[in-house]
Design goal:
alpha/beta, 2 domains, 14 helices
Length: 405
């Protein structure tokens, strides 16, 4: 039997798996790992959302198949959210699709719009599904460095002029995972103008739109006049309401793109379990003070992380948004690279982070630190890091000696 499956062969080795294997081994040995590696919210889902789930699951009819593009009540709630949050009017019947988290929405959108060989412009570094959703669909990724929003925007223009065949789509993602970069509405105006000039589809990922600290609330690309002519936005309840495992997201905007996604999904799934969708509608329609509370928790953790790690000898810039810090490698480890640093950090200090190179080649020199441990654990991690950095020369010499043998 030939097991050289085409799509599997197109996927590179999963870099994060190297750190995950070490993490699993150490935990099996009883080592306490302070885990900043995965963006997995640790706080409870707000109680009124859980209560609505419990209430609904007791109704026998809700055990039946649901709707692949989302029940009407949830789609109306998603449209309502865009109205009160961004001032954007959406038709819940034609411009809103409920998805099984933003990741599934992105992947199936790629399946819906991509022909073999189609070129898609993707930021680098980026969340892996942005590139690999299209790679699995048979597309070709044109990586553009995204060291800053301005750098990425200028790179899009160059990529459009130098790609053969011309690209069909461009991906933007702000607040960014992993870099925590933030943009204002003028950035989106430039993106929409560029897309209309070059006949591009725009896919905007705003999964972290409610996790922000210093600036005004992050905008939506759909606030730009005429954006719905070319763009859809991918959003999620995972971080906003600490509902990551519930798997509720949305794709909203351009009606033709939403229809294409709905058709693909109609062949693949029946949507999320109906009680989950009802509870998700309650989250969007209900009191939003829980969102402020969750945002406050992340801000407190961010401030603790920046201060404690700075005192330990590792300077981490304060992220303006998202649940991540994008941390340059400490000076002693810049030549070692992000993967080796992450492996040594977990083995020697019991602290897990995500190597920047796992988000693309331009992520090298950084690690992503998730704000997913409480302040006490963050301070403990900083104490471990202080000792780790004080032994840096000895650790690196040992690595070099092992490599030479």
């Amino acid at each position: 039997m030939n097991t050289d499956f085409y799509r599997i062969q197109r996927l590179p080795p999963y870099i994060f798996e190297e750190v995950n294997r070490i993490k699993a081994r150490l935990r099996a040995e009883g080592v306490d790992i302070i885990d900043f590696g995965m963006g997995n919210p640790d706080m409870p889902t707000p109680q009124h959302i859980v209560d609505k789930l419990i209430e609904t699951v007791n109704r026998p009819k809700t055990n039946r198949y649901s709707a692949s593009k989302g029940i009407p009540g949830l789609r109306r709630a998603m449209a309502h959210y865009y109205d009160y949050r961004f001032g954007v009017k959406l038709n819940p019947d034609t411009e809103v699709i409920a998805t099984l988290g933003s990741k599934e929405g992105f992947a199936n959108l790629a399946q819906a719009i991509t022909a073999p060989g189609d070129v898609v412009i993707c930021p680098n570094p980026a969340y892996p599904i942005h590139a690999y959703g299209f790679i699995m669909a048979g597309g070709v990724i044109r990586h553009v460095p995204a060291l800053s929003p301005e750098h990425y925007l200028s790179g899009i223009s160059r990529a459009v002029h130098n790609s053969v065949p011309p690209p069909i789509a461009v991906i933007v993602s702000y607040p960014s995972n992993p870099t925590a970069q933030w943009v204002d509405l003028d950035f989106y105006k430039d993106v929409v103008a560029l897309a209309k000039k070059h006949d591009l589809i725009v896919l905007s990922d705003v999964a972290y739109s409610e996790i922000y600290f210093e600036n005004n609330p992050p905008p939506s690309i759909l606030q730009v006049d005429g954006a719905k002519d070319v763009a859809v936005e991918i959003n999620s309840l995972s971080k906003t309401y600490a509902m990551a495992g519930w798997r509720v997201g949305m794709v909203v905007g351009n009606a033709k793109l939403c229809a294409a996604l709905a058709r693909v999904k109609s062949y693949l799934d029946y949507g999320a379990f109906t009680p989950i969708q009802v509870a998700a509608a309650a989250a969007l329609n209900g009191p939003q003070d829980c969102v402020d509370e969750i945002r406050g928790i992340y801000k407190s953790r961010r401030d603790t992380l920046v201060k404690a790690m700075g005192q330990a000898g590792w300077t981490i810039p304060a992220p303006p948004a998202s649940m991540f810090a994008w941390a340059p490698l400490p000076d002693q480890f810049k030549e070692a690279g992000s993967l080796l640093f992450a492996k040594l950090l977990i083995e020697e200090a019991g602290v897990a982070v995500a190597p920047g190179v796992g988000f693309g080649e331009y992520g090298e020199g950084y690690v992503r630190v998730g704000l997913v441990e409480n302040e006490h654990r963050i301070r403990q991690a900083a104490r471990n890091v202080r000792k780790f950095l004080s032994n840096a020369d000895e650790l690196l010499a040992r690595v070099h000696n092992q490599a030479a043998q």
